[in-house]
Every structure is written in structure tokens, then in C-alpha cells.
Amino acid sequence: MPKRNTATPPPPTTDRPGPQRESPDNLNPPTLGRCGICLGAEKVRTLIQLHRRAPVPGTGWGCVVCNLPADGAIGVACDACCEKLGDQLPGALRWICVGYAAEDRRLSYSPDEAVPPERAFDHDRALHIELWKCAVCGCTNDNPCDDGDAPCFWLSASLCSACASDDQRDAHSKALYEFRARQHAEFHRWIHSYKP
């Protein structure tokens, strides 16, 4: 029978060959061109989504939930401006990207400028439950109000169950019942028609 090795293993060393982890500052981040606030080029790595169309379609932000194309305008900011301005960052933006940010082409921009309706670009809030807000009580998906023994639920993008009238609740329950009944009937048709 072989003897068991009872020697203690050597302490780990940090100078052994192999992949080494690098700090985020040492990695090569994508180049986003000049900052849209100070025009500096050092550590520009924050994208700002604007609720207007990009100067060049297909080169901005989009949304897979809303099925929005990448036509939303973007601005970029450096770490220094982000740190200095905090929440006021979007209001301080003075240049937006023309084409892709890395192309470093900029267009003068004023956050106070009114956006004509044909240039507006935004999410479809009805498809984003995280953006829903009750028009009556102001509750949100992350901060629901109390509906008796449980948190409220949504009847629409702007009405929670706690604020709904009995008629609105009944209409919602009826619609939900009819939807489930259709699903149940379709499932049974599929099961009975299935032949292995």
C-alpha cells in the first residue's frame, strides 16, 4: 500500500507564470473620443442617452424591449466631469456624438433646446414595467403601495390595484380569466392533436 503524502504544500507565490488579473485602469477601454462637456480625451467612458434622434441614424442608443432601432442621440463624458457634476451631468452636456462616439465628431448641443416632436426619441413606457408609475398614488414597481394584505399589482401602466375602482378591478379580473380560458383551450387542442 502506498504511503500518503503528509508534507505541507508550499505557500502560494504571486510570481508564477500564467494569466494575471489587471485592474480596470490598466485595461484598454474603448475609445469614445472627446468628452461632450470639457472636450478632454482622458478616460472618456460614460455614455449619456438623450431623448432625441441621433444626427446619424443607426449610430446611437436603442432598446430591445421597445424594439427601438439604434437611432437615439448620445453624448459622452470623462470620469472627471462625471465625478464633478454627478446628477447634473446630462444638463451640462454641450456636444453630442455625430456618428459613432469613437469617430470623435461632435455637434453643438443645448440641453434647454426644445425637441420638435419629429426629433423626439424615447422608450415605450407601456413595455417597461420598471418605468410604470401609478397616476393616483405615485407607487412604482420597486416601491409598491399596500393593497390590503399584499403589495399592489398593476392594472395598467398608470394604475395600481390599490387605487382602482371595483369596476376597474372586475374588468381586469374578467379579462385575465378570459385570457387564461383561451390559453387553456388552446393547450387542450394541442394536447389532443399531438401524435408522437
* Number of separate strands: 9
Largest beta-sheet details: 3 strands, antiparallel
Q: What is the domain tally?
A: 2
Rg over alpha carbons: 27 Å
What structural category arises from helix and sheet content?
A: alpha+beta
Uncertain parts? none
Question: What would you note in describing this structure?
Answer:
- The chain is of the alpha+beta class and 196 residues long.
- 20% of the residues lie in helices and 20% in strands.
- The chain contains three helices and nine strands.
- The strands form four sheets. It has a three-stranded antiparallel sheet.
- A hairpin with an 8-residue loop joins strand 4 (95-97) and strand 5 (106-108).
- The N and C termini lie far apart (57 Å).
- The mean pLDDT is 83.
Indicate the topology.
Elements: E1 44-53, E2 61-63, E3 68-78, H1 79-85, H2 89-92, E4 95-97, E5 106-108, E6 146-147, E7 150-151, E8 154-156, E9 159-160, H3 166-193
Antiparallel strand pairs: 1-3, 2-3, 4-5, 6-7, 8-9
Brief sketch in words of this structure:
The chain is of the alpha+beta class and 196 residues long. 20% of the residues lie in helices and 20% in strands.
